[in-house]
Design goal:
With 314 residues, this protein is mainly alpha-helical. Helix content is 77%, strand content 0%. It has two domains: 18-171, UbiA prenyltransferase (Tetracycline Repressor, domain 2, Orthogonal Bundle); 174-314. It catalyses: heme b + (2E,6E)-farnesyl diphosphate + H2O = Fe(II)-heme o + diphosphate.
Length: 314
Amino acid sequence: MSDATVNTEVQTGAPEARFGDYVLLLKPRVMSLVVFTALAGLLVAPGSLSPMVGFTAILFIALGGGASGALNMWYDADIDRIMKRTKGRPVPAGKVTGGEALSIGLWLSVISVAMLGLATNWVAAGLLAFTIFFYAVIYTMWLKRATPQNIVIGGAAGAFPPMIGWAAVTGGVSIESVLMFGLIFMWTPPHFWALALFMKSDYHEAKVPMLTVTHGRKETRRQVWIYSLLLAPVALGLGLTSIGGPIYLSAAIVLNLIFVLRAKAVWRRDEATAEADSYAAEKRLFKFSLSYLFLHFGALMADAALRAAGVWGW
């Protein structure tokens, strides 16, 4: 075989997968939120785990989140190839095969659930198993392509990590963990719909029934405003539970005031105005929403640390 033939085969063949491609398969940016909120749930829960067990719990919760990401990329490869935002992902880019993504997702699901159960308890493991199932099957395989409420209902998958962290310590569920779940659940629709407002063509071309596609941008703006108003009392209510404190309540008041005002600015705009300034208000809301959860859960952990140090009780 000539050198020219070899070179042609190398150039036209599929790109060879690198370690980083397999990491991207697990959606590391999403995983960072999973890890952070699960860690918050673990640290603010009454009781404690040894540092080694706590690290192990977070590791396998993270792997469970990665398993969900891999299964999502396996199933959604067809629409990921169409959308500008996702066409560079490992499977649609041809760097990782669909079979590899499915295999990795399934194996990580089994390993993460089994090891979390062995390391902590089976309530936490059961919640992790349900989270993976909900994201991979209920959201990815069903809701995402079936209803404009895909983000609303599907948001539950991303809301479970703090409940899992809490359950890893306590072995159960409480009003505090339910409200941490509620905070993420109510945040998800305005967060994603703000993105959809300036990424509508992606979802339209991929035939994903995002609210912007099925009901138009005016209705999407109204829903962003409504869910932002519903989000605020959940966030503030969490501050009135046993895990709240002065830092969290102060942060929640400021953050939700900003969030509501930015959502109101999005709601009051018409499409011509938004298009004229390249959807500046929508992008401001979306960018702020990226830090919203990290700041809330960071404040919860700060209050927990000061409470443990005896600075204040609640």
